[in-house]
Amino acid sequence: MAVHFHEEDLPAGVLAPGPIAVDTETMGLVTPRDRLCVVQISDGHGDEHLVRFANGSRYDAPNLKAVLADPARLKLYHFARFDLAAIDYYLGVVAAPVFCTKIASKLTRTYTDRHGLKNLVSDLLNDDISKQQQSSDWGAPQLTDAQREYAASDVRYLHRLHAVFVERLEREGRMGLAQACFAFLPARARLDIAGWADRDIFSHD
Ligand code: MN
């Protein structure tokens, strides 16, 4: 169990087959303005890989892009909408097929409005993660140990949460609805980038 740090691309062959957990850290919430700094990946077997992109990066990361674009690999996210937009905009790939634990939580845990990753890890896995570094400077020349640990922890629990939510979605009869939502997410991310971030195109107004 270790956190592996890489510059500009993932080494080839470091991931076991199967679903991968994916997260991103950026300079902020406005995708075209706030550059992609880190992509985190885990295959669920205990190691996390952090791929760091420097300021001015060309985002020429063939190994990482191949893994993200692989249609045979399910990608697990928490709030996929944001990560898909950053990956689409900066790396130029659609990182699907998608499973989003935030959407799965909203579709099954209708008895609460606690759908943050920290809430899910606490309520469903009885573990604790710190979100203290969430709004730290991911563009700094050197990432601190606390930032690396935070970035890794954001992908560490997604396989276990996925297993919980598959059961819950099936129990509640909402797997089909969840899958339809997940399939739409790459388009939702494109709408965000294209200027419809704050507009619900399904609403009457
Ligand atoms: Mn994160």
Show the helix and strand layout.
Elements: E1 3-7, E2 20-26, E3 36-42, E4 48-52, H1 62-69, E5 75-77, H2 80-91, E6 98-100, H3 101-108, H4 117-125, H5 145-156, H6 158-171, H7 175-196
Parallel strand pairs: 1-4, 2-5, 5-6
Antiparallel strand pairs: 2-3, 3-4
Task: Describe the protein.
With 205 residues, the protein is an alpha/beta fold. The chain has one domain: Ribonuclease H-like superfamily/Ribonuclease H (Nucleotidyltransferase, domain 5), CATH 3.30.420. 41% of the residues lie in helices and 15% in strands. A six-stranded mixed β-sheet has the order 1-4-3-2-5-6, sandwiched between helices. Helix 2 links the parallel strand 5 and strand 6. Helix 2 crosses helix 7 and helix 3 runs parallel beside helix 6. The longest helix is centred in the last third of the chain and has 22 residues. The site of manganese (II) ion has 3 residues, from strand 2.
Mean pLDDT: 96
| Helix/strand order | EEEEHEHEHHHHH
Bin the helical content. 40-55%
Major sheet, described briefly?
A: 6 strands, mixed
Rg is 16 Å
Q: List cofactors, ions and other ligands.
A: manganese (II) ion
CATH homology superfamily name: Ribonuclease H-like superfamily/Ribonuclease H
What are the segments in which pLDDT stays under 50 over at least 5 consecutive residues?
Answer: none
Q: Which architecture per CATH?
A: 2-Layer Sandwich
Termini separation: 50 Å
- CATH class equals Alpha Beta
Q: Determine the CATH topology.
A: Nucleotidyltransferase, domain 5
Q: Give a count of the beta strands, DSSP E runs of length 2 or more.
A: 6
How many domains is the backbone divided into? 1
What class, by secondary structure content? alpha/beta
Number of helices, counting only DSSP H or I runs of 4 residues or more = 7
Report the portion of residues in β strands.
Answer: 5-15%
- Overall geometry: globular
Arrangement of strands in the largest sheet: 1-4-3-2-5-6
